[in-house]
Amino acid sequence: MSAAITDPGQAHVAAAVPSHYDVLIVGAGHAGAQAAAALRQAKFGGTIGLLGDEPYSPYERPPLSKEYLSQKKPFDRLLLRPENFWAEKHIDLLLGQRVVALDAAQHRVVTEAGKAIGYGKLIWAAGGAARRLTCAGYDVAGVHTIRSRADVDLLVGELPQVEGVVVIGGGYIGLEAAAVLTGAGRAVTVLEAAPRVLSRVAGAPLSAFYEREHRARGVVIRTGATVACIEAAQGRATGVRMADGTVLPADMVIVGIGIVPAVGPLHAAGAAGDNGVLVDAVCRTSLTDIYAIGDCAQHVNPFAGDTPIRLESVQNANDQATTAAKAIAGTPVPYRAVPWFWSNQYDLRLQTVGISADHDATVLRGDPDTRTFSLIYLREGRVIALDCVNSTKDYVQGRRLVEEGARIPAAQLADTQLPLKIAGIEADACVPEEAGR
């Protein structure tokens, strides 16, 4: 069932949708698209349906807050696969459809339009929706999130009339948007409820570095900031009222405070999991013949202290998709992949490997004033993560240290004259054979 294309990336679902697929994938983002492709790579010969709630062929999400928002990359360059790929691989795109109910016993889902689609195996890759404010004015015009192409298209369409922007949330999305918009000449204020930006994902030295970089370009950053409501006039945002009564004027408000996992139908059907849907080592949920992958999949991760977590990253989406596809194709391989992430802000390239949560020590490698440095995180003496700013070599070489949980003296890690791969080798040479590392 091929789709006729009009605008680049926009596909139209054929009128006749099959009533059953051997594998039905709900969610046409990174995870869903990779799962479909990986099934074919694994020689799966059954029927595959890829169902998504947007009218576009699968596309990249990370550039939405970077190159697409800045209009440096057109949408057709965001497509994950060429348009003809799906038809050539006999993968049906079922776009512009949302699943609202799941009957796990009968092996079928129901779409918002009332269409019932059966499945042999179901892969849930629906990701999540942007978390919204709950205060008064959260839904007035001029308040935006950045999660889909439609979100950014709407935002960009309003920009010519915008002078001042308030960004609520000092995570990656918020800071990336702030970088783009201040570069476009807008006055930007970032509000972060925590004592520092990036507090959930990075150590204090990295937070301080990015706060300095943004402030140097005119961005106002307020931490420990609590929003009371969005001020509005004639149904449109005019400012943000803080808990202390201060009103920050704004022509536009961007909310970047995380996502809510899109797992309602799974939970309603009895799937286990309190933060998303819990999956096992091959991405199976507690429901028969149902897998979950990507942003919505809660899993025990060996690189996060073996605690159940959700990872919102392209790496996790792709690797879990491949894991689920191999299991369905009959060649199961447990999921074990080192998490990695990245963020582009101004001319700064941040590359992260590993999970720094629960670290008990940090090592600064290099000088932040040079804008090329790394922050290395340790737990009980082992390397568990690195944040590398404009330092790709550290990122590449540090990956092995994270994979192995290497023990390396802090002085060696901090020595920029000693490449991390050499530091790792020297550390190995110092470990007695009987240590069994």
From TrEMBL:
Residues 340-421 form the Reductase C-terminal domain. One of its GO terms (cellular component) is cytoplasm. Keywords: FAD, Flavoprotein, Oxidoreductase. Signal peptide: none annotated. Residues 21-321 form the FAD/NAD(P)-binding domain. GO terms for molecular function: oxidoreductase activity, acting on NAD(P)H. Gene3D superfamilies: 3.30.390.30, FAD/NAD(P)-binding domain. Its cofactor is FAD. PANTHER family: APOPTOSIS-INDUCING FACTOR 1, RIESKE DOMAIN-CONTAINING PROTEIN-RELATED. This is Pyridine nucleotide-disulfide oxidoreductase. The lineage of its organism: Bacteria, Pseudomonadati, Pseudomonadota, Alphaproteobacteria, Sphingomonadales.
